Amino acid sequence: MENERMNLLSGETETKAGNTEFTNGFCTECGISPPLRAHHCRHCGKCVAKFDHHCFLLGTCIGERNHCRFWWYLLFQSAELAFSIMVSATIRIMGTSERRIAGHGLPPVAFLALTSMTTHEVGHDPEYFPYLQGFQECDLPFSRGVAANLVQFCSPPRRQTAWAPTMWPRPLPFDRNSDFTCSTLWENKYYSCC
Predict the structure, then answer these.
(1) At CA 182, angle to CA 125 and CA 148, rounded to 5?
(2) DSSP assignment letter at 127
(3) How far apart, in whole angstroms, are the C-alpha atoms of residue 42 and residue 54?
(4) Which of 31, 77, 104, 133 is at 20 to 30 A from 179, Cα to Cα?
(5) Are 130 and 103 in contact (CB under 8 A)?
(6) In angstroms, rounded to a whole number, what is the distance separating the alpha carbons of residues 60 and 40?
(7) What does DSSP say about strands 46-48 and 53-55: parallel, antiparallel, or unpaired?
(8) Over the Cα atoms of the chain, what is R_g?
(9) What class of enzyme is it (predicted)?
(10) Band of the pLDDT at 138, cuts 50, 70, 90?
(11) CB within 8 A of 43, min separation 6: which ones?
(12) Number of H helices, E strands in the chain
């Protein structure tokens, strides 16, 4: 297993488990075969596991290792913004009763955490990603259910000598006539919202 992980990270071979492909092609910039859902960030110049986006404010990519910390960062920044607005309004005694709502960035990030999606995947048509071809725009192919998604999103990195990205298996096609509607939330045998 360790040899497979090292081969994957070095780009020497493509790791497969049965017929399930775990790699996302080959990154010519980094010279490796990045894991599925990884993306090469042109700003950082490296491949990022479960790439979400590059945050210019923090000067780093948001991905598998820091997604939960980014959520907490947004939460505390939103609370600080709300507190600042409240203090400022109290000091200035504003003429209007209009209040600005702080934390507009939290609901989208919370949705991504609950569904195991990334802004990079949501911001593109599924046909943009080879591993999402055949899926529709509102499908959740990587969702494992709300509880499992939150555990995966918030779990601290495992204690090891070297961190290794999650090896996401290529998602299987959906059966839209099944009783399981978590992955086909917007279109299934009971209703269609899209």
Answers:
(1) 100
(2) G
(3) 9
(4) 133
(5) no
(6) 13
(7) unpaired
(8) 20
(9) transferase
(10) confident
(11) 54, 56, 61
(12) 5, 6
